[in-house]
Write a structure and sequence with these properties.
This protein is α/β, with parallel strands linked by helices. Helices cover 32% and strands 23% of the residues. Strand 4, helix 4 and strand 5 form a beta-alpha-beta unit.
Amino acid sequence: MTIKLAVAGVRHPHINTILAEAESRRDVELVGIAERDQELRSGYAERYDAPAYEDHTQLLDAVSADVIAIGDVFGDRGPIAVDALSAGAHVLSDKPLCTAGTDLNAIHEAWRRSGRMLSVAFEKRFYPPTIAVSELLRNGELGELALITATGPHKLTRHNRPAWIALCLGIHHIDVMLALMGPWRRVSAMAARLARDIETDDVSIAIVEFANGALATVVNSALSPREVSHLRIDTSRATIEVSHLYGYSNADWTYTPAPQVAPEVAAKWPPDVDEPSGHLAQLRELVADIRAGRRPETSGAGGRAALELITAMYKSAFTGQLVDQGSIGPSDPFYTSLHGEAQSHGPEIGRNP
């Protein structure tokens, strides 16, 4: 069975990785590309020898695709996902899936009605070390989970990264944190525009309490000269860490057992398999899910958890409130916008004079 893939929007470079890895598979065929920008549209059509269309509606009318991969600008992804699901296609969207709770719920309803697959490109969930640590936590091998620290220093280029930094720069670590820690309970956060000439924040810091009682700190920065992301997990039996810039492999992870853990036990913690960073593992899983009729891990609640937490982080930053999980509903101004009713798009909380 060949999976027919079409692309809606090529504005984010992550779509290039998805296309390249789809091209490497014999069981995936590219059947069309939609892009509003004429130059980009022509370039991609020529590069991949695929039919090109001016927008996603033309694409959906013209081709019969099993999967629509979405790589358009952040704010336009919601309607594309809804239309694709409603047309009977599965969806693989670059992160973030959308930027507002209104779009998120519309996508969720379209997904529920359609019976199609919805997968958000949180590819780090599918890397062997992430899977290994998740299994170790789930089976109790690492003991009680106490603390996780996630830092995401990253470059911020005005033209191609104009969004809120937690949404754009920190979302991968936030998603991995949620995949490892489980449901969150409440969050307190601050955000500021300290140095960058941008419309949003360039630093955000959050403290998250999880349903299991564990705590996490999440730091996102567009100001750090050393652009290295770091994730540290502290449990009663180990400290596990990874430092990297973009993707990571087994070599980037360290496992430090507690004194009571025998060395031969800790030696079994790292995964036996390794593979290059990218979207290949997630694409492989999505194809397998489609064939087996399974729901992807980043579908439904798994796909929306990161955006819900990020929205709550910004509500806390703007209002100074402790925000509970599930408390942002349709009547809340933060349901439709990450800055709520604030007149400025840049948080002033904690801003230097």
